[in-house]
Design goal:
62% helix; mainly alpha; 89 residues; 434 Repressor (Amino-terminal Domain)
């Protein structure tokens, strides 16, 4: 499809900058499986957003985009709500 642009979340942008899940594991002091789950779901829990943001603060994606702390936190908050709603049903 010409003109189609993939929708990229802030977390996807983070991963395009840091490249490896290991950086998430070390920065957030979480297990490899937790970091893998974040990558799979496309968002990071709100409690870890600031640690992830510190990894990329001031860095840009290959497209020249900076990461927005607010968008990263919003994605985490909304992702957590969706997960909680699914778990309660």
């Amino acid at each position: 499809m010409q003109g189609f642009k993939e929708i990229r979340t802030e977390f996807n942008k983070v991963m395009s900058i840091i490249k490896k899940q290991r950086a998430l594991v070390e920065a957030c002091n979480v297990s490899t499986s937790a970091a893998s789950q974040w990558v799979k779901q496309g968002w990071v829990p709100p409690s870890n957003v600031i640690f992830v943001y510190q990894l990329v603060k001031g860095k840009k994606t290959i497209d020249g985009e900076e990461i927005s702390l607010e968008k990263l936190l919003y994605e985490g908050t909304m992702g957590k709500r969706l997960k909680n709603n699914r778990d309660s049903n």
